[in-house]
Amino acid sequence: MCSQSIFHEDLLQEIFRTTLKFCDESYLVGGTIRDFLRGSHQINDLDIAVDADGFEIARALADALSARASFVPLDRERRTGRVVILRVPQIVIDISTFKGSTITEDLLNRDFTINAMAVNIADAINDRFSEAIIDPLLARHDLEDGIIRMCSDNSMTDDPLRMLRAFRFKAQLGFRIHDETLFRIRESANLVQNVSGERITDELAMILGANRSSETVHEMAESSLLWELFPELLAMKGFRQNAFHHLDVWEHTLEALGKLEDIVESLPSFFEGLSGNIQDYLYEEPVTNRPRIWLLKLAVLFHDSGKPMSASIDGSGKLRFIGHERLSKQIISQISGRIKLASRELLEVSMWVEGHMRTGILTAEKPSERAVMRLCQRFGVNLVGLVLLYLADLTAARGPARNDMEYTRARLGARHAIELTFKREESPVRPLLDGFDLMSLFALDEGPQIGLIIKWLMTEQELGVVCTRQQAIEAVSRYITNTAGHSEHKAL
Question: How many domains, the chain?
Fold first, then answer.
C-alpha cells in the first residue's frame, strides 16, 4: 500500500512538518506502524516518539497547529503529552520522550513486538514509509503470524497494565498471545493490583467492547489475571446449579457472554426493524470512548456473582438462589469503587444486574400487557439492555428443567418489550393529572402515595384505558377507593 493514501492529507502533513521543526529525531511508532501494515485506510490515532521532551513538544504542537487542537498532559514523569484535534473524525496524537538513548532502545523497551516498530517522520513525508521501517525485534513476522509477544522478560513487571493490554490486543485484533508471554502473565498476575483503577477500566472497556470478547475473558481467567482483578468472581468457579442449568455458575456466565455476542451479531434476525435502534443504544457512549456494550458485558459477568452466597436447599431438597440478584448488585457496587466506574456507568450496570430476574415474565404464555408496561416504566430505555441480558442468560441455561417453548416465547416477549420501550421513548406520555391535581381533587397529602398513583395512571394511559382528563379523574377515584378497601381488609 502506498503511504500517500494515508499520510498525505494536508492536516497530517502539517502535523509531521511542525513536529520535525521541534525535533529532527521524531518517529512514528507503535500502533501507527502496526495499523498501517495491517492495511488500515485511515489512521486517526498517531503515536510519536521524540529525542526531546515529548510533554513540551505536545504542548507546543497543540499551540502551533492551524486546526483547533487541545493539549492533554498524559504523564509528566515519563514526559508524555497528547494533542487532540477537534474535528470529525477526531485525531489523537500521543508524543513521548524516547525510552532510552536511541529509537532502537525505545523500541526494545516497549510492550509487545507488534508495537515495536518505527519510521522517521521525514521518511513518512517523503514516501519512504515501508522501506524505512525500523524493526529490531522482527515484529513484522509476529504481525503476519498474528502473535502477541512481549518485547523483553521485564515487560510485565515494568508496567503490569501490559498484561491487560495483551488481552486487549487479542480481543481487538484476534491475535494469539505467545506461550511465553502467557506464562509471564500468570507469573505476574498479582501485580495488576498495583495498577490504578482508571487505567484498568479503560483497558477493560476496550476488551469487552470488542465484538468477540468471551474467548478473551476465558483466557484471562485461565491466566489468573481475571481472578486477581475480580476475586469476587472466583467463588462461581465449580459452583453447581439447579436443574435449570447444565453448567456451573462460572461456565454458565461465560456461555451467557458468548450468547450475548451471538445476539448482538445477529440483531436483524432477532429483532428485524428494531435492530438499528438497538445498535445505536448499545454503541452510545455514557462515558466518552466507552460504549454501552462493554457495560452490558460487565453486567453479564457479574449477574450471577451473588449465587454462591445465596445458595440454600428448600424443604423439597431443591437448590435455590433466592435474592442472588441483590447480592450480585452489592458485589458490582463494591468493585465499581475499585475500578473507578463513572456514576452513570454504575447506575446502568447495577440496574441490569439487580433487575435480570424481573424479565422472567416474558417467558409466560400470555404475559400481561400491564406487567410489561410496568417493566418499561421501571427501567426506561435501559430495558433494552436488560432484555438482551435476559435472552443471553436464558439461552445459556439448558438444564433438564428447561423446555424449547420458553425460548420461543422469550424471543417474542423480548421483541415486544423492546418495541414498547422505543415507542415510549419516541412519544413519552404525560400524566393527565399531576401531583397538585391529585392533592386538590382527592384531598391527599403530599407523599409517596402521589407518585404511586401517577405511575399507575400513566400505565392506564399507555394501555389506552384512560384517554381524557375526566376519565383520569374517574379512574383515580376508583383506584383510591379500591386501594383503601384493600388496606382495610389487610388491617382486619
Answer: 4
